[in-house]
Amino acid sequence: xxxxxxxxxxxxxxxxxxxxxxxxxxxxxxxxxxxxxxxxxxxxxxxxxxxxxxxxxxxxxxxxxxxxxxxxxxxxxxxxxxxxxxxxxxxxxxxxxxxxxxxxxxxxxxxxxxxxxxxxxxxxxxxxxxxxxxxxxxxxxxxxxxxxxxxxxxxxxxxxxxxxxx
Length: 166
What we know:
Elements: H1 9-49, E1 61-62, E2 65-66, H2 68-78, H3 87-90, E3 95-97, E4 107-114, E5 117-129, E6 132-139, E7 143-148, H4 152-155, E8 158-163
Helix pairs in contact: 1-2
């Protein structure tokens, strides 16, 4: 017959204390990861907002002139995320999310068609308030601006949403 060792109250208390410390450390680690993610999203958005008023320039990637995909690339780069250069390639990067799951920091992609020509466009979601989803982008006619996705022009041309910061 196996011998059972008596465990005193002191040993049980120490075991429970150790277990509590391990669980607390894991909880703190998860909280710190969430805080880092939030801070990165804020940094990406504030970087993009810093370009407001910058004129649109096809192929441009500076405050002298910028296109939509460079705006995304520069903004995410500031937070340490390296994403592809073109909107078409960016639209395949990250995790796909649906309309009902969109949140600040996600990228919205558009596909426009006109007279046998098609082109891609991207913008960064800056805020979500009910049906109002705001995004910042480099408009060909107005430069870097903030717009609302409830506008039919944008809403009807949305191709997908992607989440880079998971």
